[in-house]
């Protein structure tokens, strides 16, 4: 019997992903979630690498928009913002350092970082600081509200981009899935527990908590789910399984 493993996004193996692709579409049926398991580096790099780096850059920039809005941040940004208030480091530097520390927690969880994991740490730190440099402080309330909504929308889009590139999970995602695999608890329980803990520590450190924090929690999941099927890249095995019987494959997988 083939053993099933859990990848960095909490999905099943490539076999399960292919099975979802092979399942016939039924009229009115709810579409299956896109396969998000790790795809090897050499698969369509000219498509996936730009998508990864654009997604990570936009993610960092979306964090800076929410920081400038000053109406509440997502839990990890609350922690980063709180740490910034007690150090001389920039928001981007703290974001990268926290990502590196979280990556160390992968060791007892037996998680292995991928290319996208390392890129996540490096690019987020740079792009979030760049966004804070570009967007001025002391903005009026209407502008800040616009930045908040724009930041949440951009954040969800960027998640769909870099996750859909399938180069491996970010440090925080890997912590979530690794802890779930180790403890046997659901992804939902582990994610909620981690984010409540992170939010609490960040709030105690003086991080910005507000209406934007609640809005982010409510909106980012559904908006990401809307974008993700549009940007999820497929592997050669999945494309081959999806092709009708007898029809030659035209995609060489070279881009």
SS content category: mainly alpha
First-to-last CA distance: 34 Å
What's the overall geometry?
globular
SSE string, helix = H, strand = E? Answer: HHHHHHHHHHH
Helix content: 55-70%
| Rg measurement, Å | 19 Å
Percentage of β-strand residues: under 5%
Annotation field: number of helices: 11
Number of strands: 0
What is the number of independent domains? 1
Largest sheet composition = none
How is this fold's topology laid out?
Blueprint: H1 14-22, H2 45-69, H3 75-84, H4 91-104, H5 106-109, H6 115-134, H7 141-164, H8 171-183, H9 187-204, H10 211-231, H11 236-242
Helix pairs in contact: 1-11, 2-6, 2-7, 3-4, 3-9, 4-6, 4-8, 7-10, 8-9
Q: Can you give keywords for this protein?
A:
mainly alpha, disordered N terminus, single chain, 255 residues
Provide a compact summary of the structure.
With 255 residues, the chain is mostly helical. The protein has one domain (43-232).
Characterization of this structure:
There is one protein chain. With 255 residues, this protein is mainly α. The chain has one domain. 65% of the residues lie in helices and 0% in strands. The protein has 11 helices and no strands. The chain has helices spanning 14-22, 45-69, 75-84, 91-104, 106-109, 115-134, 141-164, 171-183, 187-204, 211-231, 236-242. Helix 1 packs parallel to helix 11. The model is unreliable at 1-27 and 248-255 (pLDDT under 50).
């Amino acid at each position: 019997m083939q053993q099933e493993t859990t990848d960095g996004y909490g999905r099943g193996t490539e076999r399960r992903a292919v099975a979802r692709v092979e399942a016939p579409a039924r009229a009115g049926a709810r579409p299956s979630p896109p396969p998000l398991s790790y795809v090897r580096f050499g698969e369509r790099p000219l498509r996936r690498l730009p998508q990864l780096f654009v997604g990570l850059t936009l993610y960092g920039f979306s964090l800076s928009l929410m920081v400038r809005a000053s109406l509440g941040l997502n839990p990890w940004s609350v922690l980063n913002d709180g740490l910034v208030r007690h150090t001389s480091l920039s928001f981007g530097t703290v974001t990268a350092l926290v990502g590196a520390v979280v990556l160390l927690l992968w060791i007892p969880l037996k998680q292995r970082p991928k290319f996208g994991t390392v890129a996540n740490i490096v690019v987020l730190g740079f792009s979030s600081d760049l966004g804070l440099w570009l967007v001025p402080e002391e903005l009026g309330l209407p502008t800040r509200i616009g930045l908040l909504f724009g930041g949440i929308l951009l954040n969800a889009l960027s998640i769909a981009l870099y996750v859909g590139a399938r180069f491996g999970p970010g440090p925080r995602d890997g912590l979530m899935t690794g802890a779930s695999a180790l403890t046997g608890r659901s992804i939902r329980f582990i994610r909620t527990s981690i984010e409540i803990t992170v939010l609490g520590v960040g709030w105690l450190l003086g991080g910005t908590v507000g209406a934007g924090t609640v809005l982010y929690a409510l909106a980012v999941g559904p908006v990401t789910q809307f974008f993700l099927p549009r940007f999820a890249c497929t592997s050669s095995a999945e494309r081959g399984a999806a092709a009708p019987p007898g029809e030659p494959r035209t995609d060489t997988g070279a881009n």
